[in-house]
Design brief:
Alpha-Beta Plaits, Beta-Lactamase, Rossmann fold, five-stranded parallel beta sheet, 20 strands
Length: 505
């Protein structure tokens, strides 16, 4: 039986309690002091004798209570520790101040054929220098990659207080990818994408269907149309939604940096390389998605390496010899015409066909009609909150100017323009001058709105411009149709296409 005795903290009271128990010839297996408490494990003490013992103990000056308990504090603590270690999915080791293994959790023991206490760090991880490095640096070393019985894991070291040892935790690289993904602003999926135009309706309808298919996805669209938002929404709507979504802009980094970011590098791969190597996005995003933005800018060398990965799901790190296999969905995007680049020799044909399994075409902002005003109003509200100014609104002429503008920079250009207008305008009403939109007549001097504008896009832009101007003179779809010598139905259809108001039509 185990008993718990509480008492007033005075000199010699513990000895008196133990002397009384010894005088009754009780064998004591354990005694734990936690003043003003003493816990006693006396196997020979039975329930029928407890009442007499309680009376005797309470007659000792200062003893306040005597109760039976199920276990001692140390036993309870060990039970709680075992439960905690059992609940940890990651392998964990506890080291003493000499970097020797004291304790391993069940997750580690399931991976270890022998006792980790006997093997030591050198045999466990195949690293002869790890123990010495831990001691030399007082258990403060950066995260590194180690091999545990053929499995490559990341090792994180947390020193214990007083340099009493350390806690070693091992986990898969995808854990970091999940943390990185969680730190990013989480999208609302397709529900968070604004737009009610026919072009957006068709895009989102197709995207919802393709999102569920676990195959490479290629997204086309001009710069600034929101291709990454579409990619994130597709990931969120897929079966991989609970796994990482990591992105790499292929145009933002030189070839060597882009390679190490995507594929990682092995230990000693180059001068300045992180000790133990570094996993790339493909490893960090295990079971998730990797978004390759502006893939048309990828170098021929990286194209070849990416092609090999798409063929069998395996790759080698920079400077590495080990084959790494991961389960990752590739979503790519570009504003360039990859088919033409293939014909011109600027992009690998075999890679193009591997990426072009599923495709989405994101419409330009000028093709989205009334969505321009919807987005502008949302951006304006956000800008006012961000710069902490009173809410403001767009005037009627500003709204017409926004609809008439060709938007070569698309949604990104609109957002920046609205933010600038909210920042510089001191009035509650934003006028066209505050928007700083170049006069449309100036735009007409150039046959193309941007370097990448197609003939059809250029014709749409000029058609919208013509209809926007003439609608001011002929504010009726029927009158405008008569003026242009076409049918009322054709004009009404085009006015709806470009988001030009039909309030007077």
């Amino acid at each position: 039986m185990r008993i718990h005795v509480t008492f007033v903290d005075r000199v010699g009271i513990t000895q008196e309690v133990l002397a009384l128990l010894g005088g009754r010839n009780l064998n004591l297996d354990a005694v734990e002091m936690v003043p003003p408490n003493v816990y006693i494990d006396a196997p020979g003490l039975h329930v029928d004798a407890l009442e007499k013992l309680q009376g005797a103990l309470l007659r000792i000056g200062g003893v306040q209570s005597v109760t039976a308990v199920d276990m001692l504090p140390s036993q309870l603590g060990q039970l709680q520790l075992d439960a905690l270690l059992e609940a940890m999915n990651d392998p964990v080791l506890l080291l003493d101040d000499g970097a020797r293994v004291l304790l391993a959790n069940p997750a580690f023991l399931r991976r270890c054929p022998d006792s980790p206490e006997q093997l030591g760090l050198r045999q466990l991880f195949g690293d002869a220098n790890l123990q010495g490095e831990l001691l030399d640096n007082h258990f403060r070393i950066p995260m590194r990659e180690v091999s545990l019985f053929g499995q490559h894991l990341l090792l994180d070291v947390v020193p214990l207080a007083g340099n009493a040892g350390a806690l070693l935790t091992l986990f898969h690289p995808s854990r970091i990818g999940g943390n990185l993904s969680a730190l990013q602003e989480q999208p609302d999926g397709f529900d968070g994408l604004l737009g009610s135009s026919q072009a957006m309706h068709e895009l989102l309808s197709r995207a919802r269907r393709l999102a569920r298919l676990d195959a490479p996805l290629l997204i086309h669209g001009e710069t600034g149309t929101g291709k990454e938002l579409i990619a994130r929404a597709c990931h969120t709507a897929s079966e991989r939604s609970n796994e990482p979504f990591l992105a790499l802009n292929c145009a933002a980094l030189p070839e060597n940096l882009a390679e190490s970011e995507l594929f990682g590098y092995a230990a000693g791969a180059f001068t300045g390389a992180q000790r133990g190597g570094k996993p790339g996005l493909l490893e960090l995003a295990e079971k998730g998605s990797v978004f390759l933005d502006e893939i048309g800018e990828m170098s021929p060398y990286l194209q070849a390496k990416l092609l090999r990965f798409l063929n069998d799901g395996s790759f080698r790190r920079v400077g590495g010899e080990r084959e790494i296999k991961v389960n990752v969905r590739i979503i790519s995007a570009t504003h360039r015409d990859l088919k033409q680049m293939v014909l011109d020799g600027g992009f690998r044909e075999d890679l193009y066909y591997r990426l072009n399994v599923l495709t989405l075409e994101v419409p330009a902002l000028r093709q989205r009609g009334q969505d321009i005003l919807t987005l502008a109003e949302v951006f304006l509200e956000q800008a006012c909150k961000q710069i902490r100014r009173e809410p403001c609104y767009l005037s009627g002429t500003s709204r017409q100017a926004l609809l008439a503008h060709p938007w070569p920079g698309n949604v990104r250009q609109l957002q920046n323009l609205i933010f600038r207008a909210a920042a510089i305008c001191e009035r509650s009403q934003i006028e066209p001058a505050d928007l700083e939109i170049v006069e449309h007549a100036t735009q007409e001097l150039s046959p193309f709105g941007s370097d990448h504008e197609t003939l059809a896009q250029s014709m749409d832009r000029h058609e919208r411009s013509l209809l926007s101007r003439m609608y001011q003179q002929y504010p009726s779809s029927r009158r405008l149709a008569e003026r242009l010598g076409t049918s009322h139905t054709a004009i009404a259809k085009r006015l709806r296409k470009y988001g030009i108001s039909l309030a007077e039509g």
